[in-house]
Amino acid sequence: MLQNFRDNMKGVTAFLLVGIIIIPFALFGVDSIFLSGSSVEKAATVNGEPISKLRLQQAVAIRKQQILNRFQDISPELIDDQQLQGPVLNELVRQKALQIEAKSHDIVIPQKRVYQALLDTEAFQTEGAFDAEKYDFLLRQQGYTPNSYNALLSEEMAVNQLIRGITGTGFATAQEVALLAGLAEQKRSFYYLTIPAKDVLEQTEIPEEALVAFYEENQTRFMTDEQVIVNYLELSTDMLLQEVTVDEAVLREQYEQEVANSNAAASRRVAHILIEPGNNQQSLLNELVAKLKAGEDFAKLASQYSMDYGTSEIGGDLGFSRPGDLPAKLEVALDALEVGQISGPVASEAGTHILKLLDVKEAAVIAFEERRDALEQTIRQQLATELLLGRIDKLRDLSYNADSLQGTAAELGLDVERSEAFSRQGGAGIAQYPAVVKAAFGEDVLENGYTSEVIELSDSRVVVLSLHERLPAAVKPLSIVRADIEAELRQKVVKEQLLTTAEQYLQRLNSGETIEDIAKAEKLDWQVSLDTRRVGGNMDGSLLGYVFAMQQPDKTPSNGGLFLENNDYVLVSLSKVEQGDISKLSRDQRNGLKASSAMASAGREFQSYQKALLDEAEVSLLVQ
To answer: Considering only the top CATH level, what class is 266-361?
Structure first.
């Protein structure tokens, strides 16, 4: 959420953690400090309040980027935005319900708390002090303006306060804490022996007739998916770069244009005082102008008068902006100012501004020789892109209703390429792209034998394809699956034999023999584990989990057993259970258990509360 965004600025989607509650929360800066809101298409409504399609699209894009950041080997084309849309929209609906609930309880965050949160954000600081330039840059990078970010931060803090109010009711009684201590600090003592699978596996042979019978009885398990092999033509800017050359004169002209643009694009650091429309607007402006003419400090006056609550506490500082970033009237006023000068009143849709030009940064000019290679690459890429657009149109015209790709390939100077076989789940090469798979298995290509439409693999790469061969689903030959079948049958036989042996040993345990007695008689390894806790140590996790799930012994040990992941069988005899004693815990340990119990209670409270909110809310989903 925005709290997390303030901490590390790694993205505009983060997570709010309250106890054990995690709520995905995507936020986006779509407003402007100088622009009024406009109507947008709705993706959903919650109790009549809209969630815009733009917000949904941005949330999907951010979720997609999160996935790509986590799984860096995945191609972006493999992630279907449509599949992400449903879960992301559900998250936005849940968050909207919480926002509405916070408003209904008149939860309002004082602007001073919001300002302080901004000033305390490390991401906005340089050497421990608030840095307006960094603040401006990071907000722009995330798609925010100061007002939109501050408004969303305020909303975020209000929702957090609501959740804290709900979860703050969670508490733990002394009895609950004592019970939790008894379970958390419980110790168990047990003996166990291992019946190894390896020895039995080495002696197990599967008769040929059993292998064949299993293959014939389970042929549906060994079916290949229907597959296709396609022929395709590919066009990309990379392929066309070799056809493009750039004259030296063009490079020089582009360089001169860059220099001219950079000189015109000097960035300006601006502060402003905003007076919003109202009955006393003019009197406030007159008072403000008089104080400025009298030489009073602009920053102090901004904190007293400015109605842009996102910047008033920082002297009205908007940070650096480039020409064109601000409304035209403000740009004109700034053009007339020298550094340190203050403008007269300037109107915008948000109200009336008084501007102060704080600083100007001239753009650095790089020598032509240093820019030449980069300029050439950029221009060649642009020319190749323009060339690609024309070739795509020609490819589309030539391939439409074409009997084969050969003629189209010859006309365009391309080679017909052939894919590997792939199924509806995709495959290697171009089959990794969902759009290719969809086209290849579509009715036009698969059933009617037509050439596909032009398929975009990226902004700079397209293909068209046609069916080369259709490979129906079929049973894999026994020779291909023999090893898998044999391994499965051997494991089945081994488990059956181990289980039979274990049942015999278990009967002996229940008749009074001990783990040690059986292990010595059968020449097996055995061990004892005394006063063992639930966590810690190097013991196999599945064994430890089984032991702590066993019934507590009464007068005689509790006996049982389980298979480990390596297929060994472990026979267990639980001899003693000692409950944890809260009186033996340190104060920190007791406080930790109390907090854990209260946290669990708070989590249940919040889940119930949120479920009730959603059950009662009128939700309309307007997109599929």
So the answer is: alpha beta
